[in-house]
Amino acid sequence: MTRTVYVNGEYLPETEAKVSIFDRGFLMADAVYEVTSVLGGKLIDFEGHAVRLKRSLDELDMQEPCTKDELLEIHRKLVELNGIDEGLVYLQVTRGSDGDRDFVFPSLETKPTIVLFTQNKPGLANSEASKKGAKIISIEDIRWGRRDIKTVQLLYPSMGKMMAKKAGADDAWMIEDGYVTEGTSNNAYFVKDGVIVTRPLSNDILHGITRKAVLRMAEEAQLKVEERLFTIDEAKEADEAFTTSASAFVMPVVEIDGVQLRDGTPGPIAKRLREIYLEESVKEAI
Ligand code: PDD
């Protein structure tokens, strides 16, 4: 089945979808994005992603390409047209193209470019990776200072994943000024003596939509949460660790820089939070 994608108002086969070579998303990474997961053919936390998209656009003085209701309609239609039961919807908005390359932003008459496509991922909720847990390495965080804006500047996170792969691991956590910021595409946590520790929100990390939901659910389940800076050494000495993201939900971490946590299997709190998150978010999916 050819995938149907959405580009600037049109639903098209992926092979026919086109964006200008002068598009600022392509030339300057002048673009923001969102990834929304789909379970049971429904969108998980669409509202959270729509609100964060608006915030990213506002922070960069970019125009909204359409209303939230239209966005929801496009998401739903793509899920339906592509028969997605479990998977993801990727959305990207760029500052568009005024037909040339220039560092200066184009005038507000230049329309933003909007592109959405689906990724089919059968078995996403029950993935083998989540049963095994992830091995991570730590790397320096050399990204720009506005990581709260979800831009498509993903070269360094991609390099980080490659560094992890080369080291025989699955992912990397990044470190700045001695403290863990976040994973290459997820938020980072450890658990010690029953307390869940994660970095507080600031411009240094992405304000994860899954993070917000998981922290709320942890508190509802009477688990203690501490939002504070932490070092990689604390995480290595933890009882367990995990990450959160829309594409992997709650992912247990079983090894950090070659140091095995517990017996090298996912910890009970990460497993429980994954179960609660999946159960609750499927109930609220739209
Ligand atoms: N990444 N931190 C970073 C750097 C991220 O790229 C992501 C998400 C997160 C988690 O945010 P959320 O819970 O809203 O997905 C944290 C997406 C999934 C991606 O780039 O594919």
Structure description:
This protein has 286 residues and is an alpha+beta fold. It has two domains: 4-120, Aminotransferase class 4, branched-chain amino acid transferase, N-terminal domain (D-amino Acid Aminotransferase, Chain A, domain 1); 128-284, D-amino Acid Aminotransferase, Chain A, domain 2 (Alpha-Beta Barrel), CATH 3.20.10.10. Helices cover 29% and strands 29% of the residues. It contains eight helices and 15 strands. It has helices at 24-28, 46-59, 68-81, 128-132, 155-166, 209-220, 232-236, 268-284, and strands at residues 4-7, 10-13, 31-39, 42-43, 87-94, 113-120, 134-140, 171-176, 179-183, 187-192, 195-198, 224-227, 240-245, 249-256, 259-260. Strands 7, 8, 9, 10, 11, 12, 13, 14 and 15 form a nine-stranded mixed β-sheet that branches. A six-stranded antiparallel β-sheet has the order 2-1-6-5-3-4. A hairpin with a 3-residue loop joins strand 13 (240-245) and strand 14 (249-256). The longest helix is centred in the last third of the chain and has 17 residues, at 268-284. It is globular and about 55 Å long. It binds N-(5'-phosphopyridoxyl)-D-alanine. N-(5'-phosphopyridoxyl)-D-alanine binds at residues 35, 182, 185-187, 206, 208-211, 244-247.
